[in-house]
Amino acid sequence: MDIIVLSPGATERELKHIVKKLEGRGLRAHVSKGTERTIIGVIGDTSKITEDEENAIRVMPGVEDVMRILKPYKLASREFKQKDTTIDVGGKIIGGEKIQVIAGPCAVENRTVLMAIAGKIKDAGASFIRGGAFKPRTSPYSFQGLGEEGLKYLAEARKKTGLPVVTEIMDPRDMAILVKYADIIQIGTRNMQNFRLLLEVGIAKKPVLLKRGLSATIKEWLMAAEYIMSRGNEMVILCERGIRTFETATRNTLDLSAVPVLKKLTHLPVFVDPSHGVGKWDLVAPMAKAAVAAGADGLLIEVHTNPEEALSDGEQSLRPNDFSRLMKELKPLARAVGREI
């Protein structure tokens, strides 16, 4: 018993009665009210619910059907919600007909560089600006970001261009300041299974871009999304960014097969980050095109005005002219799959 579907005429009193019954059995209820149906996602160990107890709930007033889901990720599953989730961020719809493009530098380095990049990606047709103010680096001696100063620069870039801001959180203690400046909060690959952090963004009222872990299976990735959604935040965007394999020709192995697989398993929007997937600027464009063909709802692309001087990931960053060319080349591909960019 994982999903309870209420009848069209179910009252609020009947809904509260059902929720109370579930809570009395040590379970939690996630209520999703649609235009035609209200669905209750039952959170907790439902394997302990006997067939008799399930049947007792089935005959309660207001209940139309009770279903069990074999998948452990209930709220993220197609069984819980068949219609694709769309997320409105400042009037830009993620998960709709338009393929949204997030672009910008890996790290916010200084105001001058960020403003120059912001103007270039805006002119090329990007939908959002990205940049790391807090940078998780493999080496403790590498550039770690500007912190709140970097967030202020991102907010200024948003004011200048109108592009909503996407930036990464690393520590739950930074939640208040991230919520103040960010339009979308990014969970990076190293933090995909930082469950405390996932629960914190789960109570935030901001969309979350959840990147796939270095060696995470699709199931583990969706379970990470479930952590966020279990706290009430259903605005989750999945981002494939390559996984670690034995191959060394590219930075990671970009798993584009994950896109159609996810489209089958979940209603959540799916983005692809070809920059981290390949790690080499000249391979970014081909993989971005392949991601559009595979059905991605959006792209995350690193852009820098002077990659050789970048403090982070210069090797995989496109110059503005290359990014602009790519955006033009993506348009006919998007039309070919019934989308726009």
Report on the structure:
The two termini are 41 Å apart. This protein folds into two domains: 3-67, Alpha-Beta Plaits; 87-336, TIM Barrel, CATH 3.20.20.70. Helix 5 (175-181) links the parallel strand 9 (165-169) and strand 10 (184-187). The protein has helices spanning 12-24, 51-58, 111-124, 148-161, 175-181, 195-202, 218-230, 258-265, 274-278, 281-294, 320-336, and strands at 3-6, 28-33, 38-43, 63-67, 87-89, 92-94, 100-104, 128-130, 165-169, 184-187, 208-211, 236-240, 270-272, 298-302. An eight-stranded parallel beta barrel has the order 7-8-9-10-11-12-13-14, surrounded by six helices. Strands 2-3-1-4 form a four-stranded antiparallel β-sheet, covered by helices on one side. The mean pLDDT is 93. With 341 residues, the chain is an alpha/beta fold.
Helix content percent band: 25-40%
Strand order within the widest sheet? Answer: 7-8-9-10-11-12-13-14
Number of strands: 14
Q: What structural category do the secondary elements indicate?
A: alpha/beta
Q: Report the order of strands and helices.
A: EHEEHEEEEHEHEHEHEHEHEHHEH
pLDDT averaged residue by residue: 93
CATH first level of the largest domain: Alpha Beta
Q: Tell me the fraction of residues in β-strands, as a range.
A: 15-25%
What CATH architecture of the largest domain would you give?
Alpha-Beta Barrel
Largest sheet: 8 strands, parallel, barrel
- How many angstroms does the end-to-end distance come to? 41 Å
Low-confidence stretches: none
Task: Give the overall shape, derived from the CA principal axes.
Answer: elongated
Count of the separate structural domains = 2
